[in-house]
Amino acid sequence: MWTRFEKYRIGRRIDGALIPKPAREGHPALKNQTSMNLVLRPTKASLRISLALLLAAPLGAFAAPLGFSPLFSPGMVLQRDAGIVVTGLGPENGSVTVSLGKLLQPAKVSPDGTWRVELAAQPAGGPHALEVSDGSTTAKIDDLLFGDVWVCSGQSNMQMGLDEALGGTAMIANAGADQRLRLLMMPKAGADKPQADPGAKWSHATPESLRKFSAVAASFALHLRDDPKLKDVPLGIIDSSFGGTAIEAWTPEGTLPAIPEKEISGSMFGIGPGHLFHRMIAPLTATPIKGALWYQGEANAGRPGVYASLLANLAEQWRKQWKQPELPFFVVQLPAYSGNGGGLDYGWLREAQSKACEASPHNFLAVTHDTTDGFDLHPVEKEEIGRRLSLLARKAVYGSDIVANGPRVKDVKAEVDRMVVVFDGPVKSSDGKELRGFAIAGEDGDYRFATATVDGNRVALTSPGVPAPKTVRFAWGGLPQANVVNEAGLPAAPFRTDTLEPRSLDFQPLPVTYRLAGPGYQIETGELGHISSLVAGGKQFLSAEPGGGTSIPGGFGPRSLPAVRMTAPNRIECRDREACLEIACKDDSMEWTITNTGGGEFEFHIALSDKVVVTGTAPTVDLSRGNAKLRVEGIDRVEPGKLVAKVPGRQTCRLKLTVVSK
To answer: Ranges for the Sialate O-acetylesterase domain (predicted)?
Structure first.
């Protein structure tokens, strides 16, 4: 941090205390300076003279290195139409002049060697050069743009890179062609005190810089370009995300709302409350931004009762830190997911997110329950989420005359044997079928799915099992089976009119599974599109524990292979956008072909039952359970309870499984 650098000055022992020498070499305050022009070629005589002067001179007479604070780096984007505070280091008690084009701003350097100037708001444009001079030395930052800066934060679903997202290759190509798109990726770490150095530098949008950049954030930027007003406006997108983290870690320390300590959620990696704010947000608050995007909640899903206040508080605390009381704050409502947190499905957390957005006119909710099938905690369908966020921003921030929200409920009323829901405009089904997603209940709170009859913006709901309905729910549960949209194709948000406490009991539809039975063995596919069961000789060879069977580990948990189909009477295929498992079956053997069309290597794991005995070494091993035996050929290594095969990028791995005895 450059603030720590204030402690280091040329000096000597004074009253027994050693004043340390300056740590100039490699210091972050100097890394970005392109024209320091300091060249010293001392002779022996000059060194003797300099040493004498050093010992005789007062401490404050020696200049600190001239430069900008590490927040400022070449290629960065500063917020247009907003005053900018520029800071840096200079000669103690000296003077500097900061220049931006024809704009000149003098400043005094404080006794601790720091300076600060405020620059007038600038329109969109660039590139510009920002310079600071003390009259003899000049430091410069070039390729500076003024535009709109957006901070994108949250946990793993915000972190997921373009290289893992559906359509990521096309998005990388499109974003990489945008010369006015700049990126800043914050390092993933916490700190126990607020930091000033972001620890990262801005970069142009290139295929390489975009590959691991947040897919949601990049998609948001790409779709902002759909607005004619933003066609040529520079965009600075900051990816400040960290998987497995709770909202408490992103909240400024000491500002959590008054909630019971037992309701506070912890983050992975031992990151405490406030520590991610200190390291990954605080450095960014020194300059204005256009708005913030927030995609988080999975780590807090087990405590939805306090999340609404936590989220509303986070938005307000960030506004205070940025000194922008009307800072737009956009929240991604969690998509469909078949799992749960703390025994509760994600419907309850979605409600908390909705309530938090209602707490401020500057909070906005992106509804996403229909963007994925819900069988993956880290869905790859990120582009549509970015697009919906961009629609909200274009309307709320940029004033575009577009439809940015799905149907909104205006009124709900009970009419004898039916419930009537009135929306703010005409509604229809997204698939051309009858409206789905509504459930109604009487006084007993026992919900039944309802038949929906639509007339423009009015939907009448009836159910034979509920003769006198009193309340209604829509798109409720972990996997909402809802299809109500407006003419723009945007979905209605989940809602309920009852006040019942959360219940953990929830039926979950499962994806289609396949079973192939032959004379020597039987296999079945499981929830994530992998093989969950392999029976030979009447014995189960795969682990039935959670995470058992076959899997492809990824940075965000096991990869899902959701596209499952029979390709022939004796062949089955499970795939996603880059990985494919194809199994060709014969009476007493199988060939498993794992294809990797992506650029990076992944591993294919086979988790074994704890009753299976493994003999032999890679690439061929025998698996035994009682009298049943399987031979597996083509693996790379054996781990406790597991076989592993490596699949390099753009290559194929083949495993052969043979029933040796049965």
So the answer is: 148-356
pLDDT in tens, 308-361: 999 999 999 999 999 999 999 999 999 999 888 888 999 999 999 999 999 999
Q: Is 98 helix (H, G, I), strand (E, B) or coil?
A: strand
Give me the number of domains the chain comprises: 4
**How far apart (Å, rounded) are the C-alpha atoms in residues 180 and 146?**
10
Q: Any idea which residue has 């620890």 for tokens? A: 199
CB neighbour list of residue 79: distance below 8 Å, 6 or more residues apart: 146, 147, 148, 149, 287, 288, 289, 290
Q: What is the dihedral of CA 342, 345, 348, 353, to 10 degrees?
A: 90
CA distance 636 to 605: 10
**598 lies in which domain range?**
515-661
Q: Are 420 and 412 in contact (CB under 8 A)?
A: yes
Are 312 and 431 members of one domain? no
In the prediction, which pLDDT does 371 show? 96
| β-bridge partners, 211 | none
Q: Tokens 């912890």 correspond to what residue?
A: 266
Model confidence at 16: pLDDT above 90: no
Taking the C-alpha atoms of residue 384 and residue 374, their distance in angstroms, rounded to an integer, is 15
Quote the tokens at residue 574: 């499970």
| Cis bond upstream, residue 619 (ω within 30) | yes
pLDDT, position 8? 28
What is the pLDDT confidence band of residue 556, given thresholds at 50, 70 and 90? low
pLDDT at residue number 228: 96
Instruction: Determine phi and psi for 106, rounding to 5 degrees.
Output: -80, 160
Say if strands 13-14 and 103-108 run parallel, antiparallel, or are unpaired: unpaired
Final residue in a domain of this structure, among 118, 144, 170: 144
- For residue 392, the surrounding DSSP H or E stretch is helix 383-396
- Residues 435 and 579 both lie in one domain: no
DSSP E strand boundaries for 171-266: 181-185, 203-204, 235-241
| Residues 200 and 299 occupy one common structural domain | yes
Return the DSSP state at 637: E
For residue 67, pLDDT over 70 is answered with yes
The residue written with tokens 């790409």 in the block is: 222
Q: What is the CA radius of gyration of the chain?
A: 30
Q: Packing angle between helix 347-358 and helix 304-322, nearest 10 degrees?
A: 40
Report the chain's mean pLDDT, rounded to a whole number: 88
Pair of tokens at residue 310 = 């936590």
Quote the CA–CA distance of 180 and 443 in Å, as a whole number.
58
Closest C-alpha among 399, 318, 328 to residue 149: 328
Distance CA 525, CA 546 (A): 14
**Which among 344, 368, 396 is the end of a domain?**
396
In angstroms, the Cα distances linking 587 to 397, 400, 517, 574, 591 are: 63, 63, 9, 21, 12
User: In this structure, are 154 and 294 located in the same domain?
Assistant: yes
Whether 441 and 449 have beta carbons less than 8 Å apart is answered as no
Q: Give the span between the Cα atoms of 535 and 513, in whole angstroms.
A: 16
Kindly state the helix (H) or strand (E) to which residue 176 belongs, with its residue range. Answer: helix 168-176
pLDDT of residue 509: 67
pLDDT class of 547 with cuts at 50, 70, 90: confident
**Residue type at 659 in one-letter notation:** V
Interacting residues of 621 by C-beta distance below 8 A, sequence separation 6+: 614, 615, 631, 632, 635, 638, 643
In a domain, 327, yes or no: yes
Measuring CA to CA, how many Å separate 611 from each of 16, 156, 259, 626, 661? 71, 35, 47, 9, 17
- pLDDT value at position 17? 29
Segment 151-195, tens digit of pLDDT: 999 999 999 999 989 999 999 999 999 999 999 999 999 999 999
